Every structure is written in structure tokens, then in C-alpha cells.
Amino acid sequence: MKVSAACLPCMVHRAYKEVCHATDDPALRLKVMMKVAKLLAREFGPDAVPAVVGTKRDRLVKALTGNPDPYKAIKEASNKAAMRIRPWAEELIERASGPYGRFRKACLCAIVGNAMEFDILGHEFGFEDLRALIEGAEENMAIDDVKAVYDAVRRARKVLYLTDNAGEIAFDVLLVHEIRSLGPEVTVAVKSKPCINDALMEDALAVGMDEAADHLITTGTDSVGLVLEWASNECLRAYKEADIVIAKGMGNIETLTEYKHDKPVAFLLYTKCETIADHLGVERGKCVAILWEPGTKVQ
Q1: For the whole model, what pTM was predicted?
Q2: Nearest 5°: phi and psi at 164?
Q3: In terms of domains, do 49 and 107 share one?
Q4: Cβ contacts of residue 280 below 8 Å, gap of 6+?
Q5: Domain that holds residue 40
Q6: Domains in the chain: how many in total?
């Protein structure tokens, strides 16, 4: 997926927010933002992929500020907030009727979890919003391929589940549990190094993903989304062996739509930005589940 004009102010806005998380030094903040401006002038163009440019921006911010994980405190708070209401979400799933009913409810919880994002221009989120968002998820589905995803999972022997944000990953645990109950072996991949507020191994362990998944690995990179050329051999092997990939969040849809795939890819996300929403033909603030079949490539 390529950038739109709306991506540029969003990238600058997030860069500034990230710099503020990374350092309190006004002079250093100015220096970093000047470097970010030069990077964007060089990298931003009609053929650019938002997640790739965003990754280069984030690497620059971390390198220049000397702060390897500017969103660490936010991630920890996100995990704690999600874990506080996860028992309630588990009860919703348990009350659902039959395997598909439980899968659907868990899928909606995981999609709503993707709303746990900060510093995106125009996207407002508070931890107190989670319960209401989950309760309203059914009515807020803009693209609903959940049944098709369920059917594809039931046919699969192996599933690769690509996570996105910290906090959100607590709800991913619920969906991974339901996927495994249908028979497939599930490999879950988190980022190997800090990438904005994306989940790392420490976040996965904090919410019990190691107990939910058959295998817990990293992508081998700090990229926003999954750039296959940057991924580790372990991650690429899990991708190759999977019968279906479940990809959470906007970064994964930005990167993975740049490739043709030999297997179904299910994108589960909450539309937090104008570019993604326009790309999918929906409004911002909507729940989306899309199943793209093998061979699909969307620019």
C-alpha cells in the first residue's frame, strides 16, 4: 500500500510525539525533528510505503535521542489496562453459542484491541473506552469476513499470527486460544526490537501468549508491519509453512499488500487513519476483518 497526502502530516505529528516521549531536552528535540524533516523529504514520494518510511523515521528518532524504547511506559500501561478487562471479555466469549460464536466474539475483541494506539493524528483513544468499544464492535463492523476467516482457519494445519500493539496482544491471546481449539498449530510473532508501541517478547510474556500459542517467535526486525526482506529466517519459515496468515493492525496491511501471497491472509484491524480508511473504502474508527485469497496484490 502506498502513501497518500494525508500520511505526511501524520508522520510529522507522530515523529514529534515520539521525540517527546524519548527526551525532555528541547534542543535535542529540535535537532531530531530537523533530521526527521530531511529524512521525509528524501523518502516520502508516490511509491513510498507508509510503514517503511515510518520505520526509518522511528529508527532515526531512537538513534539520535539514545532512547531505544520511547513507548516503553505506554506499552506497560496498555498491557495492564487490557489485562484488567480481559476476564470480562473472556466471559463474553464463553457465553457465545458454539465454536463459531466463540471465534467471532474473540475476533471482535482482538480487532477492538487494535484501537489501542497513541499519537496518530486524529485518532483519540482512552483505556476507559475499551469496554464500550467491545460491546459495540458487532454494530461497528465495516468489512466483515469473520466467517470466511473462521472457515479458512478450520481448514488450516498451521497458522501464523502477526501481532501489532502492546495491550492489544492481551486480546490476541483470546483469539489464539479459539484458533487452537479448532485444530491448527499456531505460531505467534512479535517484534524483536522496539517499534513504536508494538508488542515485544516481554509484552507477549506479560499477557500469557507463551501459554496460548504453540510457538512464540519474533519477526527478527523492528519494522512497522512485516517487511519480508527484513524478516528473520525463523519468521520467513513460519510464513512459508503457514496455511493462513492472520495479520493484525494497519502496519501489516500497509506492508503485506505489497506482496503476492500463496496462502490466504486475514487482516484484522481498527481503521485509525485516513489513508487506511480510504484505501479500504470505509470510515475511520471502524472494525474490519478482510480475507484476501492467494495471489491478491493491492497497491
Answers
A1: 0.97
A2: -125, -95
A3: no
A4: 142, 143, 271, 288, 290
A5: 7-65
A6: 2
